[in-house]
Design a protein that fits this description.
By secondary structure, this protein is α/β, with parallel strands linked by helices. Helices cover 28% and strands 25% of the residues. The protein has helices at 33-42, 60-63, 66-73, 81-86, 147-153, 167-171, 177-184, 192-204, 222-235, and strands at residues 3-8, 15-19, 24-27, 52-54, 77-80, 96-99, 105-107, 110-116, 125-131, 134-139, 158-162, 209-213, 244-247, 257-258. A seven-stranded mixed sheet has the order 6-5-4-3-2-1-14. Helix 8 crosses helix 9 (222-235).
């Protein structure tokens, strides 16, 4: 068994739940302790049963609830050294496990592959999680798609990929110029168009189940992200009927996905 559930995904907070028969983990902890606890309860999971919290990078929308949750429930934190040193919270009493980016490690029966991504953080990474010949991958906060990113996504049975903003909405938004420049830059975030092109490559490499995530509340909306990606698939001559495309919920948990039952 390999299950995935997006608890929350967006610029206001990110947190995903992954489980096998024997292991339960969170990937990122970017919401309050209360909200994450309630989210887990809504899918009939107990936060006390977690075996670890994996952190992609130190930005607040990925670590907001980390210190309180890890200390209150004594949950081990997994992060690379530069990320751990950059987290602006007191996590001194929490169990910490340092991994090296691009080196596989294990949490009980889950195999974890942290891979480097281009983003303006200390040492940001995405995660592939494997169990019983099934693989899911989470890759958000990506300034641009590199070949290495595609290489790490290929072979996944399910991918959560960033589709953060629509360029014209961002350009016309009330964001300060420097913030717009950061988001649009090579180490910022991934646009709907770029997500569509990346997904087209992934589909041609055998991936047929993708969830769009980390949508900006101010510079995007789910229908637009979905429409833009579908248009990209069509322009790349891909049969959209053979691709399962969804959009991650920002404010409430999505349904649990059984990755083990997804066809290869």
């Amino acid at each position: 068994m390999l299950n995935f559930c997006n608890l929350y995904s967006g610029s206001s907070g990110n947190c995903s739940f992954v489980e096998s028969e024997n292991t339960k983990i969170l990937i990122d902890c970017g919401n309050s302790c209360k909200k994450i606890t309630e989210g887990l309860e809504s899918i009939n999971k107990d936060i006390k049963d977690l075996d670890g919290i994996l952190i992609t990078h130190e930005h607040l929308d990925h670590v907001k609830g980390l210190a309180i949750i890890s200390k209150k429930y004594n949950i081990p934190i997994y992060a690379n050294e530069r990320t751990l040193n950059s987290i602006n919270q007191d996590i001194s009493l929490s169990p910490k496990n340092i991994f090296k980016t691009n080196e596989q490690f294990e949490i009980k029966d889950l195999k974890i592959n942290p891979f480097s991504i281009p983003h303006d953080a200390a040492d940001p990474c995405g995660f592939s999680v494997s169990h019983d010949r099934k693989k899911l991958t989470i890759a958000t906060d990506i300034g641009h798609i590199e070949k290495s990113t595609i290489d790490n996504l290929v072979g996944s049975d399910f991918v959560l990929l960033e589709s953060n903003y629509e360029p014209e909405m961002l350009k016309c938004s009330k964001y300060p110029y420097m913030l717009k420049r950061r988001i649009l830059g090579p180490n910022g975030h991934l646009s709907n168009e770029d997500a569509g092109e990346a997904i087209s490559i992934l589909v041609k490499n055998g991936i047929d189940n993708v969830m769009l995530g980390h949508l900006s509340q101010q510079n995007n909306f789910p229908e637009l992200a979905y429409k833009t990606v579908v248009e990209s698939l069509i322009s790349n001559k891909i049969d959209t009927d053979k691709v399962k495309l969804s959009v991650a919920n920002r404010t409430a948990p999505d349904s649990i996905l059984n990755i083990s039952k997804m066809e290869a």
